[in-house]
Design goal:
about 25% strand, Naphthalene 1,2-dioxygenase Alpha Subunit, Chain A, domain 1, Rieske Iron-sulfur Protein, about 425 residues, alpha+beta, seven-stranded antiparallel beta sheet, 17 strands, 9 helices, globular, 2 domains
Length: about 425
């Protein structure tokens, strides 16, 4: 009886038909998952939190990325710092569980080695006069704060092109003053699917009209994708109206200094994969709510204008939507080949008061519903890709072009690592 050889990760990706999805084994195998963690979550920049996670000096937010654990810290000078959550003595976790805490110092629970918020080792016992604490500071993690977004890279050689994301996004975030926000609500959802399927689902809206009634209430239908084939005169006129509305909004916003244009850094040559645009919101053009009006009357920063649409940004582990009144920041962390943590945060102005300036249900109901719907879609897709009958089909060039770009980028990053 002949034995069919198991394809390597490289061979699996090479077998992808151009313009089609990845083979099912890329979503389920443990060796592929471990390679993905190493390349896409250890060697590239990833989003792990927002500045509002650590609003005061001494606040700590602990995040797990595969086997790694990092501590996001607000120091005494109110700077954001990140460290490996590993004591420099015998490796104990300093913060025993992921999540948030407020501390004066970072104290290892094993032998009470004590670190300042700047990472320096301040106290030990029984180590003798020859012991040099300067050689045992906490291990820092490369960190970049852009707006309210905290990006880290666990590699010793982080990709330099994070500077392009910073250059592009800083002026787009600036009017919203994202560091003057607080977390009104946050959720964690474990989706029963591979992280790449979560990304693919987020990068297309082919599925949106049929599955996201709450979200699409604030979307213009043409934003789901537009295929002119077979359309009648009325539909084509509707599309012309859409184009004209977008152009008018863009001209109006840009006359007041709000950047609107699409910027993409998605091709095979880049490491820091991201896309941004300011989109028109349906209806009142104010916010992603069921009414399309602001959820919070206390606008972000010093804004006075409500109808500023949606500044979106997504990367290979995150997506963000910023309106005049609030922002949704979500990021993913792989747990297993078939499990992905989706962490979502709703940000409002730091001085906004629940029940006075905003109603929590109005603020959160659209994306709570959308996240749950997406989790079901991802689970169903992951299951289907593991069926022996699964053969990857073609992407729509009108609504899924970004997925083919993602596959090509994914392939290129693996080749760079010779996987």
């Amino acid at each position: 009886m002949s034995v069919i050889p198991i394809k390597t990760h490289r061979e699996l990706v090479d077998s992808r038909v151009p313009g089609c999805g990845l083979p099912g084994e890329v979503f389920s195998r443990q060796d592929v998952f471990e390679n993905d963690l190493d390349v896409f979550f250890n060697k590239l920049w990833i989003l792990v939190g927002v500045t509002a996670d650590v609003p005061e000096p001494g606040d700590v937010s602990t995040v797990e990325v595969g086997k790694a654990s990092i501590m996001i810290v607000r120091d005494d000078d109110e700077n954001i710092r990140t460290y490996r959550n590993v004591c420099r003595h015998r490796g104990s976790r300093i913060m025993k569980e992921p999540g948030k805490a407020s501390v004066g110092m970072l104290v290892c629970p094993y032998h009470q080695w004590t670190y300042d918020l700047d990472g320096s080792l301040k106290h030990t016992s029984h180590m003798g006069k020859d012991f040099d604490p300067k050689c045992r500071s906490l291990i820092p993690v490369h960190t970049k704060v852009v707006g309210a977004h905290i990006f880290v890279c666990l590699s010793d050689d982080p990709p330099a092109d994070i500077s392009k994301l910073e250059e592009v996004m800083t002026p787009r975030f600036a009017p919203h003053q994202m560091q003057r926000t607080k977390i009104a609500f946050e959720s964690e959802l474990i989706e029963n699917g591979n992280w790449k399927l979560v990304v693919e689902n987020n990068r297309e809206c082919y599925h949106c009209e049929a599955t996201h009634p709450e979200l699409t209430n604030s979307f213009l239908p043409e934003d789901f994708g537009f295929c002119p084939d077979g359309l009648g005169e009325e539909d084509l006129k509707s599309y012309d109206t859409y184009v004209a509305r977008n152009a008018a909004n863009k001209a109006n916003w840009e006359s007041e200094g709000y950047i609107c244009s699409i910027f993409e850094s998605l091709d095979e040559s880049v490491h820091t994969n991201f896309r941004t645009q300011r989109l028109v919101i349906a209806g009142s053009n104010e916010s992603q709510t069921l009414s399309t009006k602001v959820a919070s009357t206390r606008l972000l920063g010093d804004l006075t204008r409500r109808d500023l649409g949606d500044v979106h940004m997504w990367g290979h582990n995150s997506w963000t939507h910023i309106m005049s009144d609030h922002s949704i920041v979500a990021f993913i962390l792989p747990i297993a080949p078939d499990k992905t943590l989706v962490r979502t945060k709703w940000l409002v102005h730091e001085d906004a008061v629940e029940g006075v300036d905003y109603d929590l249900k109005t603020l959160t109901e659209v994306w709570l519903a959308t996240n749950q719907q997406d989790a079901e879609l991802v689970q169903n897709t992951h299951s289907g890709t593991q069926d022996p009958a699964y053969v990857p089909g073609p992407y729509s060039k009108y609504t899924e072009a970004e997925l083919d770009k993602f596959c090509r980028w994914y392939d290129a990053k693996l080749k760079e690592q010779s996987i």
